Amino acid sequence: MAEPLELASVYETDRVLNSTPLSVSVEVQYHGLGCLGTRYKALGPLQPQQLAQVLQQQLDTLSRVRHPNIVQFLGLHSSAPDLPLIVHELLPKCLTQCLDHPLPLRHSLSILHDVALALNCLHHQAIVHGSISAANIYLTKDMTAKLFEVGTAFVLRAVQCDYLQPTTVTDIRSFGTVMQTVLNSTEDISTASVKELVYSVVTRCLQADPLDTITLLSSIASILSKLPSRDVSSPLEALLNRHHNNFVSVDSAIDPDPPPGLTPYSDEENPPLLNRQYSISQLQDGFVEWRRCADLPVAVFQAEATLINGRVYVGGGNTESESTANIIYEYDPCSDNWRGLPPVNVTLFGLGQLEGELVIVGGRSGVRVSDLVLVFNHLTQRWKLSLPPLITPRYSTTCLCPEGALIVSGGLSQAGQVANSIEVLAVDQFTWTVVGYLSRSASLCYPSATRVADSFYLLGGYTSDTACSVSSSSHCAALSTLLPSGDLNPYIWHGLPDTPHKQATAATLHGYLLSLGGCTQPYTKPVHNSIHAFSPSLNSWELVGTLPHAVCHATAVAMGDEILLIGGWVEPGKFKRSNAIYRGQFVMQR
After folding, report:
1. pTM of whole model > 0.85?
2. How far apart are CA 195 and CA 105, in angstroms?
């Protein structure tokens, strides 16, 4: 069992959010993010060793339970040795606070549906909650329900001995009581058919059969899902709501309208760019015409970049100051302007997209490595915790972004070792899946990645977090092997001939994999300005052009027939980063 993540820099506030005979929950601040911290009170009959054993059982359970309708466990803060602080995400309110006023029917049914799904998830894993009540059901701003205090049953069993031992049946019956309370506070439950249906479900809960609790919960979730539920808006928001996730803002405020001058982007405003096909010999007979663009606001190397709706997003790289390493910059090629997005709480993150939305994955905050996945909402200009966390926390990772999925490969783990698992988030499943593991030669951090047709490629990178471990290897993986299939595949990445230079940048143009620049030895001169294309028929790298200047560890994005070359390291011996931006296009000889 993996150890729960030990959190540093957690500060308790005086705001008490919940108090029971067993525990007290307060608001805490973790790296500027409001969180919920719970500490058990001194439990009379338990000796310190017994208490530690009981808490370890609960923490093991919290570490392995991930569900969009269960309050997300973030880690442990050992401010007091015997009574550590258990840290969760902070949600706006609990269900008890909403029962003072009548609830719309669609909200009531949606809440009960979400709780049924959460309980179903727990009981499928033979986990008893033990304390189902309105006070332990928290709600997001869009009224998505999340179950809190998972694992309380371990504490209750230890404290209560043989008295009122919690079981799956007591969970179901407690859920029936919650349903009855919610429906009694529902304002428009006057339709006879709806009323009869939902109260029949309550009766089934209160009379739960010990042998049929999982089937019962599954049927309850199915029944409630067919009744009126919450509204949805954008495609991604609809997708998330369909899987009962939430949009939790890193900044608690939500703006109803976009800031002045900003409008959501649409595909109609940014038609697809051309990408003509040429042969290797045609590329060699032509030349690359480069023009300088507006400089990036910061000098950076080893950055990540992605193209969404005609705009380029750059971030996650090494900058000269920590104050700029947590900012993603947006580039508009039409106006040749950059702007910074709101900063995040991590650096060295992976950058990608999912369903046309900007996503950052993992990263590092101080010594802590993150497993969080954040989505940027262009409408509110806020970062949202709206996707499930990674299975393995990692930083300096690479994101691959096929349609309908987000793939994370490589990077460094909390222990500073290369994370060799390949994780995939498929939108139709809404959960991370390990589809395979990188071979030793392909286990890389800081790799440069790109896609050509139905294959993904990794170039260069490091085989460990040391200066002398730089690689000139290149690897290819078919898209079909990177998507969840039910079987682990240890041979996803296949080796290609080494790139001509180390620390080269991967790019795609005219249907070819390109290797841009690089250096002969890591962190030393000479730095190269060559462009090589990989020829599948020859199984070799062919020189096809030159860059506007010598550079390694740059970032590149293809925009139709053009390449956008971003930053990089221009003088390795002097640790000089670049903020230069160039747009290049192959010009063919007539």
Report:
1. no
2. 10
